[in-house]
Amino acid sequence: MKLVGLPLSLLFIFSLGVFSADAQETLRLEDAIQQGLQNQFSIQIAKKREKIAENDNTLGNAGFLPTINGTTTKNYAVSGLNQEFFGGLRAPLNQSGVRSNSGNAGVTMAWTLYDGKGMFILKDRFAELQQLGAQQTETSIENLIALISNIYYDIIRQELRVNNFKKGLEISNDRLKLAKDRYEVGQGSKVDYYSAQVDYNEDKALLLAQEQSFLNTKISFNALLVRAMQTEFKVLPVIDLLPKLSLTELRDLALKQNPTLLAAIVSKRISDLDIKNTQSLQMPQIDLLAGYNMNQVENGAGFGVQRGTSNALSYGLRATINIFDGYNQKRRVQNAKINAEIAQLQVDDLKNSLNASLERAYVTYENALNLINLESENYTIAKQNIDIAFDRFKVGIATSYELREVQRNAVAAETRLIEAKFAAKSAEIELIRLSGGIL
After folding, report:
1. What whole-number percentage of the chain has pLDDT above 70?
2. How many C-beta atoms surround the C-beta of residue 435 within 10 A?
3. pLDDT digit string, tens, across residues 363-388
4. 355: how many CB neighbours lie within 10 A of its CB?
5. Considering the domain boundaries, does residue 34 fall inside one?
6. What's the rounded Cα separation, in Å, for the pair 81 and 95?
7. Is 96 helix (H, G, I), strand (E, B) or coil?
8. What CATH number is attached to the domain comprising 197?
């Protein structure tokens, strides 16, 4: 998807990136994203889970390789013996403290030669699980980038509101000074002076509240980047938008590269492999068996074998097949097929939800763009009215109430313009996230 000759991903970077000559004081969005991806615990956890899935994807785990076990034992005994024989043919045999020992060592191997292709199916399943882990990591990364971007622009929105209230406070301060001067020279009423003081205090309270919200948002942003909460940084207070996005192109991209949807499709493939794996258990399994065993004995008694060793090499084939298990294998196959159907329904449901989310976000996006045009016009008119009203107030033509209303309208118009730009940017980020284009 290209807009104005540039790839969407590059335009997104250029639009979100905030550059400044003072790199030590101004935080660029791409730098914030890099810090977040490096420090955020959720990303670290997702990457470690992806690594586990990668470690599990081996030939040995799938059953291709033989299993070899070695065992060794050593036994010691101390025994006594008291025997008498019939007819006195032999003298009685009395022994005590007779020591004897025996040892055994052996190696056994089992190697599955055929299991209904189950090992091949398991290997494919582990590969899909590794792919699923990668998709889940990508989803976490995209969600984090979107969250960082939204809060970053919320900081810009908060700062723009601070600047807006500061301008309103400056007007209130000029009005207060003028009302005070008029009152002191006897050209204005005390009511106008007190009204100007009350309005000034009201605007100052609004500014203090907005500054508190601005600082709290920066603290939340530092927490998201997993760094010291009081870390100072600046942003360039400008909300830039991309050229208008196309819903058709976004929808096509979402169906191709949305990581959540791709993860659901991988889960569906895993369910299909589970069916094959369960069916393979109905086939015979043939194993190659081999072993080597050595025995050693040492007898302290005065008769029989005094000491000796023996060894044996064994090998052969073993075939096993499930003849009847109470229809449990049939039940497992049926359940695996049902799980595959559920996985397909989840894919279809996710596609439907994705389309709905795109539609809602695009409606918000278009509405915000229309509001920007409308509020830009209103703000231009409101600024002009401020200049006119203040000049009229200075010469005594306009009343204090009229100036106050014009001032409120100007502050409200700029506030609505700021909110419209932020809403458009938030919707824009959400649309690109849903389309899978943030990365």
Report:
1. 92
2. 24
3. 999 999 999 999 999 999 998 998 89
4. 14
5. yes
6. 5
7. strand
8. 1.20.1600.10
Q: Taking Cα atoms as reference points, which of 79, 180, 91, 140 lies closest to residue 439? A: 140
For residue range 185-233, list pLDDT tens digits in order: 887 788 888 999 999 999 999 999 999 999 999 999 999 999 999 899 9
Taking CA atoms, 379 is separated from 71, 375, 376, in Å, by 86, 6, 5
Residue 257: C-alpha distances to residues 20, 54, 439 (Å): 33, 22, 10
CA dist 416 → 150, 248, 267, 348 (Å): 18, 29, 45, 39
DSSP 153-174: HHHHHHHHHHHHHHHHHHHHHH
Provide CB contacts within 8 A for 378, sequence distance 6+. Answer: 413, 416, 417
Task: Return all residues near 262 (Cβ < 8 A) that are at least 6 apart.
Answer: 135, 436
Domains contained in the chain, number: 1
Nearest to 361 by CA among 419, 416, 418, 425: 425
Q: How many Cβ atoms are within 10 Å of 40's Cβ, its own excluded?
A: 19
- CA 233 from chain centre, in angstroms, equals 26
**Residue 133 lies inside a defined structural domain of this protein:** yes
- The residues near 76 (Cβ < 8 Å, ≥ 6 apart) are 99, 100, 101
* Residue 24: how many other CB atoms lie within 10 Å: 8
CA distance 420 to 370: 9
- Between CA 154 and CA 170 the distance in angstroms is 24
Distance, CA of 13 to CA of 10 (rounded, Å):
5
Please state at what angle helix 247-257 crosses helix 259-280, rounded to 10 degrees: 30
Residues, the chain = 439
- Structural domain including 260 reads 2-39+116-284+326-434
Contacts for 88-97: CB closer than 8 Å, 24+ residues apart:
95/301, 95/302
| 104 within a domain of the structure (yes/no) | no
Token output for 22: 């003072």
- The single-letter DSSP state of residue 102 is E
Decide if 64 is inside a domain.
Answer: no
